[in-house]
């Protein structure tokens, strides 16, 4: 029997040859077909690794906008629920240092991650966000805007879509959409609407009507952000611009890539989602919108919109307030950080503070908070409600599970993958070694079987650019980092030099293939540069390259506390199956009295996400 049912054509013939040479003994049946623009993989294979490898081969050779992997793992020797054969990678595969101390070879064979939510009776749903001005765009006149989630992509926008999952018998899905713009005047009650997505028919679009403000005259255009969500869970964001005096029925598509989120129907959303958008034109202006979980929608403040500012740029504010944080003495750090937290609380809009206090009064402190933002500098998680507003309060991220995500990033997965752990922990010379970082890496080896590639620039970039043949769940770095300094001395430091954040570009494939978490533990010995994670841009860069989560410090942290913080967080996340937000919360609570380092870490990902077993 021919086990490969593939379409005709040279590319498919080459794929068939590759499958026969590399994976024939691992495949019972492989069928590839098209449903509209969606490429469907069906059949039966012996392991999860084979399933992922097949998908990787197709993604690499056969361009497809959307791929649904419906391959069934059914080995005669293993339960179908297993992750595949437990075959460890060889030292050469993970870039380990050769015996002679030379540099490790690059990794080979790039498979890919399996899309979230496919299987178990759920299916992939794909829609294309559009925004159409159906009136002229003139200062002082009303702009009527039609927003839709279309079945097919508009011309020139084939690469901007929203994916989510739904039960196999779904017929309609309500998708919330909010409009945010500094160049439009619109009442709060008119800022939110519902698009009704239908299974086999065009959706029911929504209309927004707003007055074009005088501010648009100087810009010559109107910038608009559209935020999509489903039952409180973010779906994606579309940024569009309309030139003034645009002709009627002009259509604009956003220059920024639409972020997509898979929506599992059985996973709860965060209790409170806060969208914080900085004015894309720069300056000290933010607009806030809020979404609450189903049980909190009776609160009067739940659907308010607000604005805020600091009186200076976000980056300048961060540097002014946090450059000294690494050097706060134990026993003195909590008071100083509370003062900063109270200042950030006062800078937040009154509408947010009232909503937070209303939720706290209703359910107490144990509710989760998800931040969605386009601004990387201000640690809103550090907010500390002042005593006159709330007695017995603390920093928000010491009281609640919290995480953030970047609106212009890749999709925000609702779970973290299985796979291997890869750790880079350089053992530096010249007296600046980090003993706890070395112990942290060895702990990962002992506890999770982590691989330790040789920590050079080439070794690190090899993992990122040419992923290994087996799935990766965690990429870990523990070592020196700097956000500012002499040219060539900024980024994270390997044995033979620095990896700058600019290296996290489109050549990085690890995130796209496996959606791993990345931990950057930038430690210090004595006086070193501060503010690694925020001002150097590592978290947003990693998120844009499709990493499913990031844990990184806002400033350079103390070696021993940093190590214990990460070990506690990973134990809670992987071993104890805590949500991402709860895992980091518990670790922060364990160490907050010891050092300012426990306050430095922010979590980037779905606050409710859990690690797959």
From TrEMBL:
The protein in question is named CHAT domain-containing protein
Q: Which domain of life is it from?
A: Bacteria
């Amino acid at each position: 029997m021919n086990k490969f049912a593939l379409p005709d054509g040279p590319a498919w013939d080459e794929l068939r040859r590759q499958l026969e040479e590399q994976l024939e003994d691992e495949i019972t049946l492989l069928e590839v077909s098209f449903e509209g623009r969606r490429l469907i993989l069906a059949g039966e294979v012996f392991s999860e690794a084979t399933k992922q490898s097949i998908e990787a081969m197709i993604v690499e050779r056969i361009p497809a906008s959307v791929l649904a992997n419906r391959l069934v793992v059914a080995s005669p020797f293993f339960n179908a629920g297993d992750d595949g054969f437990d075959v460890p990678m060889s030292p050469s595969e993970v870039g380990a240092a050769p015996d002679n101390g030379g540099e490790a070879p690059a990794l080979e064979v790039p498979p890919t991650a399996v899309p979230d939510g496919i299987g178990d009776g759920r299916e992939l749903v794909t829609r294309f966000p559009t925004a159409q001005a159906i009136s002229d765009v003139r200062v002082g006149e009303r702009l009527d805007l039609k927003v839709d989630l279309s079945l097919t992509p508009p011309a020139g926008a084939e690469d901007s879509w929203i994916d989510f999952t739904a039960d196999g018998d779904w017929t309609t899905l309500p998708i919330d959409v909010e409009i945010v713009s500094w160049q439009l005047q619109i009442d709060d009650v008119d800022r939110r609407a519902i698009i009704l997505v239908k299974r086999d028919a065009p959706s029911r679009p929504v209309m927004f009507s707003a007055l074009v403000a005088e501010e648009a005259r100087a810009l010559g255009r109107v910038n608009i952000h559209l935020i999509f969500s489903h039952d409180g869970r973010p779906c994606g964001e579309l940024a569009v611009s309309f030139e003034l005096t645009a002709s009627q029925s002009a259509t604009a598509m956003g220059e920024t890539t639409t972020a997509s989120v898979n929506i599992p129907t059985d996973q709860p959303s965060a209790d409170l989602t806060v969208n914080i958008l900085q004015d894309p034109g720069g300056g000290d202006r933010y607009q806030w919108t809020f979404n609450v979980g189903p049980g909190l929608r009776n609160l009067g403040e739940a659907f308010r919109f607000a604005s805020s500012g600091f009186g200076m740029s976000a980056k300048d504010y961060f540097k002014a307030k946090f450059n000294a944080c690494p050097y706060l003495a134990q026993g003195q750090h909590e008071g100083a950080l509370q003062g900063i937290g109270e200042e950030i609380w006062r800078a937040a809009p009154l509408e947010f503070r009232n909503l937070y206090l209303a939720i706290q009064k209703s359910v107490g402190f144990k509710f989760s908070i998800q931040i969605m933002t386009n601004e990387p500098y201000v640690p809103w998680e550090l907010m500390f409600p002042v005593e006159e507003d709330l007695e017995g309060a603390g920093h928000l991220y010491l009281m609640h599970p919290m995480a953030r995500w970047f609106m212009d990033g890749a999709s925000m997965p609702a779970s973290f993958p299985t796979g291997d752990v890869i750790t880079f922990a350089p053992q530096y010379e010249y007296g600046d070694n980090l003993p706890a970082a070395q112990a942290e890496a060895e702990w990962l080896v002992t506890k999770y079987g982590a691989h330790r590639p040789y920590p050079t620039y080439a070794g690190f970039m090899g993992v990122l650019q040419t992923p290994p043949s087996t799935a990766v769940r965690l990429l870990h770095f523990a070592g020196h980092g700097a956000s500012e300094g002499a040219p060539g001395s900024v980024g994270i430091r390997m044995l033979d030099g620095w990896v700058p954040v600019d290296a996290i570009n489109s050549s990085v494939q690890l995130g796209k293939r496996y959606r791993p978490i990345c931990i950057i533990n930038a430690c210090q010995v004595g006086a070193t540069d501060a503010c690694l994670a925020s001002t150097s841009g590592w978290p947003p860069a990693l998120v844009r390259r499709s990493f499913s989560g990031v844990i990184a410090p806002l400033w350079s942290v103390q070696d021993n506390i940093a190590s214990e913080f990460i070990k506690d967080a990973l134990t809670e996340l992987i071993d104890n199956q805590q949500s991402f937000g709860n895992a980091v919360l518990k670790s922060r609570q364990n160490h907050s009295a010891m050092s300012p380092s426990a306050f430095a870490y922010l979590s980037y990902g779905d606050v409710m996400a859990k690690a797959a077993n």
